[in-house]
Design a protein that fits this description.
This protein has 931 residues and is mainly beta.
Length: 931
C-alpha cells in the first residue's frame, strides 16, 4: 500500500512539475503592417533576444502572408523583440513575461518606410541576428571574433560553409568567389584577393555572400543563368564618415627574409580611396595573377584548404595599387583602379609519370630547376550613368599588360617501346601579352512596368608575342644498348597570337501579368584567332637562328560566327520563381591554313535550353535548381595542325576537324539557416555531361625527330562527365556563437576518355571523397580554429593500373591574449601522404608561432614569429588524369624567424584596435544595396 502511495505521489509531483513548466512557457505574437498603406508585411524577420549579458536569441520566425507571427515556448523573463524588413525601419520593443502574464500579443506593429537605404547599403537601428531576403547571405561581423590586425580573409575562415584555401581562393556553396565589392562598389577590378587579404577586419560591419546575376539580368528582371558568387563588404557607419583605416607592417628575419605591407583606406560617405603595397620574399601574395601565390607569411600554408599542402617554390613579390570609387549627386557611379606587380619564382621539381598508351606504358622521370619572372600592369574603369530618366549606360573597360620571362634546366629519362631516352633541356623564354577588354550595357525602361530593352556588347582583344630558345640534346637507345638516335636540338620558337572576340546580346522583356513575363533575346558572336608559329634552327655557319624549320612552323587562322535567337518565360511568386527558355544557335566556322593555303569550313546548329527553379520554404530554408545547355568552341591551340616539340615527354597536335562540344549542366542547392540556434546546413550538387568533348588520340611516335615521345592529337569524344556532391553543417557547441563545430564533406566522380593509336578507348574513372571537421571559436581573448581534413582519391583505367592515394591533415591554430596585451599564438599542421610512389609516401609536421605585444594605445604591435619551427615542410603532389599518373616533389619555403612591427591606422571614433568586440548576432539574408 505504501509503495503504491509513493508511486502515486511521485507521478503526481511529476504532473505538477510538468504543469508548472507548461504554465511558465508563453507565446509572443502580433501582426506586422506597413504604416504607409496598412498592408501586411510578408516575410518580415522576427527575433526575440534576452535582455541579459549573453543576449541570446530564444526564438525567431517570419511573418505569414497576412503579416501575422507567433513564437511559442518562451519562458518567463525580460526580452527584446526585433522586427526587420529590408526597406522598412526596424522595430525594437522590450517586454517581460511572468508567471502571471506568460504570453503577450503586440497587436498591430507598424513599420515605417525609412531605415534601410539600398543605394548606400546602410542599415539604421539595431540589427537582429538574421534577416532572410532574396539571394544574399549576410553575416554580422560582430559575431566573428578575430585577432588584432586581422583582415577580411580571417573573418571568412570563421563563417560556416566558407572554405579559404592556402592560395586565398574562397569557396562557398560549391562555388568560387569571383569578385568583391565594398559598399556595393567594385574593388580593384576582378581580383578578390586584393580585398580579402588587404582590407582590415575592423572596418567590416557585415559580409554579404551574393548569388549575383549579370548586370543585364538585374535590369531586365529575367535570370539568364549567368550567375556568379561575389562578396560585398559593408563597412561600419564610422568608416563611411571621413575615416582612415589600414594595417601597415614592416618585418625582417633570418636568411634575409623580409615583409613589408602598406594599406591605407579613406572613406567619405559614398567616396572610397585605397592604397595597397606589398614587398616580400616569403611567398606572400595578397593578390591574384602573380606567380606562385600562397601565404607563408600569414600562415596560409596550413589550413583546411588543399589538405595543408605548401606552395611550390620561393616567390619574391613587389606590388602596389590604388582604387577609387564614388557615386555623384546625379546617381552616376565611377570606379577606377590601377595595380602593378612584379614577381619572381624559383622552383625545383622532381617528377615521375606513367602514361598509359594502348597496351603499353611510357614511364618518365625528370629533375627541373627554373626561375620565372613576371611583370603585370592592370587598369580598370567603370562608369554607370543615366542618359535620361528612362535610359542608362554602363561602360567598363579593362586594360592589362604582362611581360613574362623564364629560364629552366631539366634532366630526364623516358622509357617506352621505341627505346630508352636520356636527355637534358634548356628553355629560355620571354613573352609580352597586352589585353584590352570592354563591356558596354545600354538600358531602356518603358512606361509599362516590366517592359525593358537592353543591349550588352562585350569586346576582348588579346595579343601575345613569345620567343623560346630550346636546347635539347637527347640520346635514344634500344633495350640492348644500341644507339637509335642522337640529337642536339637547338631552336628558336617565335609565336605570335592575335585574338579578337565580340559578343552582342539584345534583350527585350514584356510583362504578361503581375507575376509572369516573357523575354526575347538575340545574340551575335564573332571570334577571330590567328597564330603564326615560326621555328628556326640554329645555323652553325652564321651563328644565328635563321634556318626556318617548316615541319614545326605554321600560320593558321580561325574565324567563328555564332547567331542565336531565343525566348524565355519568367514567373515570380512570393514563395517561388521559375524561368524556362530555349534558343537556337547557328555556328559558322572557317579554318584557314595560310601556310598550305587550305580552307576548311564547318556549320553547326545547336539547341540551348535553360531552366531555373527557386522555392522558399521559409525565410531560412530554400531550394534552387539551375539547368543550362551550352556549346563550347575549341581554342586556336586545339585546332592548329602543327606539332609543338618544346615538351620532352609529349607533343600536342591540333585538329582543324574538331566540332564544338555541348554540355548539359545541372546545379542543385538547398540551405537551412537556423539563426536562433546558430545551426547551418547546406547541401548541393553540380553535374556536367559533355558531348563531343575534347580528348586526346595518343600514340608513341616510332620514327622521326620526336621518336619515343607521346603524340597527343585533340579529338572529339563522348561519354565524359563530372559530378560533385557536397555539404556543410554548422553546430553550436557553446551558446551565443562562442564555439561552433563545422563539418563539411564531398563526393566527386568523373569520367574521361582518350583514344589509343589503334582506336581503343582508354577510359579513366575517378572518385574522390573528402571530409573535414573544424572547431571555430568566437571569444574575446581565446582564438581557436582546430580540426582535421582528409581526402581519398581512386582512379581506374581501361588501359593501365588502378591507383588509390590518401591525404590526411589535422591542424590547430590557437592563441590567447594575456594581460598586458600580450598574445601568444601557435599553429600546428601534420600532413600525411599514403598510396603514392615509394619515394612519395611520407609525412611532416609544420609548427609556426609568434608572441606579440601591443603599444601606443593598442595601435602598434611588435611581433616575434617563427615559420616552420622544426624545418620539416616538404612539397608533394599526385595527380591522376585521363591517361597519366604523376607524382611530384618540389621545393618549399623552410624555417625562418622574423621580427615585425604593425601600425593600425584608424581615425574613426569607437573603432576597436584590440581584437573585435561587438554584440551578439548571426546570419542575415538580404538584397545588397547599391547593386
Amino acid at each position: 500500500m505504501n509503495k503504491h502511495l509513493q508511486k502515486l505521489i511521485f507521478v503526481g509531483l511529476l504532473w505538477l512539475a510538468n504543469f508548472a513548466f507548461a504554465q511558465a512557457q508563453g507565446t509572443v505574437s502580433g501582426k506586422v503592417l506597413n504604416q504607409k498603406d496598412k498592408q501586411p508585411v510578408d516575410y518580415a524577420s522576427i527575433a526575440i533576444k534576452r535582455l541579459t549579458a549573453d543576449s541570446a536569441v530564444v526564438g525567431s520566425t517570419s511573418t505569414s502572408a497576412s503579416g501575422n507571427f507567433s513564437i511559442p515556448n518562451i519562458a518567463a523573463g525580460k526580452y527584446r523583440l526585433y522586427v526587420v524588413f529590408l526597406g522598412l525601419k526596424t522595430i525594437n520593443k522590450d517586454f517581460e513575461l511572468t508567471a502571471a502574464k506568460p504570453s503577450i500579443n503586440f497587436g498591430e506593429l507598424l513599420m515605417e518606410d525609412t531605415g534601410v537605404t539600398l543605394k548606400g547599403v546602410e542599415i539604421k537601428g539595431e540589427t537582429p541576428p538574421v534577416v532572410v531576403k532574396k539571394d544574399t547571405l549576410e553575416i554580422n561581423a560582430s559575431t566573428l571574433k578575430v585577432k588584432e590586425n586581422s583582415v577580411v580573409e580571417d573573418l571568412l575562415k570563421k563563417v560556416p560553409g566558407v572554405e579559404v584555401s592556402k592560395d586565398g581562393t574562397v569557396t562557398t556553396q560549391g562555388e568560387t568567389i569571383k569578385r568583391v565589392k565594398v559598399d556595393g562598389k567594385d574593388f580593384m577590378g576582378n581580383d578578390p584577393l586584393l580585398a580579402t587579404r588587404n582590407l582590415p577586419a575592423d572596418m567590416v560591419d557585415k559580409i554579404q555572400i551574393i548569388d549575383d546575376m549579370s548586370e543585364q539580368s538585374k535590369f531586365s528582371g529575367v535570370d539568364d543563368g549567368n550567375r556568379e558568387k561575389i562578396l560585398n563588404i559593408v563597412t561600419k557607419n564610422g568608416v563611411k564618415n571621413k575615416g582612415y583605416i589600414g594595417n601597415n607592417t614592416v618585418g625582417y628575419g633570418t636568411d634575409d627574409r623580409y615583409d613589408v605591407n602598406i594599406n591605407v583606406n579613406r572613406f567619405d560617405k559614398a567616396q572610397q580611396l585605397s592604397l595597397i603595397g606589398q614587398f616580400n620574399n616569403i611567398n606572400k601574395q595578397n593578390f591574384g595573377g602573380g606567380i606562385g601565390g600562397g601565404g607563408g607569411g600569414r600562415g596560409m600554408m596550413f589550413g583546411g584548404g588543399n589538405n595543408g599542402q605548401p606552395q611550390a617554390g620561393i616567390t619574391t613579390t613587389n606590388a602596389a595599387g590604388v582604387n577609387f570609387a564614388d557615386t555623384y549627386d546625379d546617381g552616376t557611379q565611377f570606379n577606377a583602379s590601377y595595380f602593378f606587380n612584379k614577381t619572381s619564382l624559383f622552383n625545383t621539381n622532381n617528377s615521375v609519370t606513367q602514361n598509359f598508351i594502348s597496351n603499353n606504358t611510357v614511364n618518365s622521370s625528370s629533375d627541373l630547376e627554373s626561375t620565372t619572372d613576371r611583370l603585370n600592369h592592370r587598369l580598370n574603369f567603370m562608369v554607370d550613368t543615366k542618359l535620361d530618366s528612362a535610359t542608362s549606360i554602363r561602360i567598363q573597360p579593362n586594360i592589362s599588360y604582362t611581360d613574362n620571362s623564364g629560364n629552366s634546366m631539366s634532366n630526364y629519362i623516358r622509357n617506352g617501346l621505341a627505346g630508352n631516352a636520356v636527355g637534358s633541356q634548356s628553355l629560355i623564354s620571354s613573352s609580352t601579352s597586352p589585353s584590352v577588354n570592354n563591356n558596354l550595357l545600354l538600358r531602356r525602361k518603358f512606361l509599362r512596368r516590366g517592359r525593358t530593352l537592353s543591349l550588352n556588347v562585350a569586346t576582348n582583344i588579346n595579343d601575345s608575342d613569345a620567343d623560346t630558345y630550346n636546347k635539347n640534346p637527347e640520346t635514344l637507345t634500344a633495350p640492348g644498348g644500341a644507339v637509335i638516335k642522337s640529337q642536339n636540338l637547338n631552336q628558336l620558337n617565335d609565336n605570335n597570337v592575335s585574338s579578337f572576340n565580340n559578343t552582342a546580346r539584345l534583350v527585350y522583356t514584356e510583362p504578361l501579368s503581375k507575376t509572369l513575363s516573357m523575354e526575347f533575346n538575340l545574340q551575335n558572336g564573332y571570334i577571330y584567332d590567328n597564330r603564326d608559329r615560326r621555328v628556326y634552327d640554329f645555323n652553325v655557319l652564321t651563328q644565328q637562328y635563321d634556318v626556318i624549320n617548316t615541319r614545326f612552323s605554321n600560320n593558321f587562322e580561325n574565324t567563328t560566327w555564332t547567331n542565336a535567337l531565343g525566348f524565355s518565360l519568367n514567373k515570380n511568386e512570393k514563395k517561388y520563381n521559375w524561368n524556362v527558355g530555349v534558343a537556337g544557335q547557328l555556328t559558322n566556322r572557317k579554318n584557314y591554313n595560310l601556310s598550305t593555303d587550305a580552307l576548311f569550313k564547318q556549320n553547326f546548329i545547336n539547341i540551348t535550353p535553360t531552366a531555373q527553379f527557386r522555392y522558399n520554404f521559409s525565410n531560412t530554408k530554400r531550394l534552387r535548381l539551375d539547368y543550362n545547355g551550352r556549346t563550347n568552341q575549341p581554342s586556336i591551340d586545339q585546332i592548329q595542325p602543327i606539332i609543338d616539340n618544346t615538351n620532352n615527354i609529349s607533343v600536342p597536335l591540333g585538329n582543324p576537324d574538331l566540332k564544338p562540344s555541348f554540355s548539359n549542366n545541372l546545379r542543385v542547392f538547398y540551405n537551412n539557416f537556423d539563426f536562433a540556434s546558430y545551426r547551418t546546413l547546406f547541401v548541393g550538387a553540380v553535374i556536367t555531361q559533355t558531348f563531343n568533348d575534347f580528348g586526346n588520340q595518343q600514340r608513341e611516335i616510332t620514327s622521326g625527330e620526336n621518336i619515343g615521345k607521346i603524340e597527343n592529337k585533340v579529338v572529339n569524344v563522348d561519354g565524359n562527365y563530372n559530378a560533385n556532391v557536397f555539404g556543410s553543417l554548422g553546430l553550436p557547441i557553446i551558446k551565443g556563437n562562442k564555439l561552433n563545430l563545422q563539418i563539411d564533406g564531398g563526393l566527386s566522380t568523373s569520367k574521361g576518355t582518350n583514344i589509343t593509336s589503334d582506336g581503343i578507348e582508354n577510359v579513366s574513372k575517378n572518385i574522390g571523397v573528402r571530409n573535414g571537421y573544424k572547431l571555430v571559436s568566437n571569444m574575446d581573448k581565446l582564438d581557436l580554429i582546430a580540426g582535421v581534413s582528409g581526402r581519398w582519391d581512386h582512379a581506374t583505367y581501361t588501359i593501365g593500373q588502378t591507383t588509390n592515394f590518401y591525404t590526411l591533415a589535422p591542424n590547430i591554430d590557437i592563441s590567447y591574449l594575456f594581460p598586458g596585451n600580450i598574445r601568444l599564438q601557435t599553429d600546428v599542421t601534420h600532413t600525411r601522404f599514403t598510396g603514392r610512389g615509394a619515394d612519395y609516401n611520407t609525412s611532416f609536421t609544420q609548427v609556426n608561432g609568434y608572441i606579440s605585444r601591443q603599444f601606443f594605445k593598442n595601435k602598434g604591435t611588435f611581433k616575434l614569429s617563427v615559420y616552420d619551427l622544426f624545418n620539416e615542410s616538404i612539397g608533394i603532389t599526385r595527380t591522376a588524369n585521363a591517361n597519366a599518373i604523376t607524382d611530384q616533389n618540389f621545393n618549399v619555403l623552410r624555417r625562418y624567424f622574423m621580427f615585425s612591427f604593425t601600425y593600425s591606422l584608424s581615425t574613426i571614433a569607437g573603432m576597436q584596435t584590440q581584437g573585435r568586440q561587438g554584440q551578439q548576432g548571426g546570419f542575415r539574408m538580404g538584397r545588397p544595396g547599391g547593386m
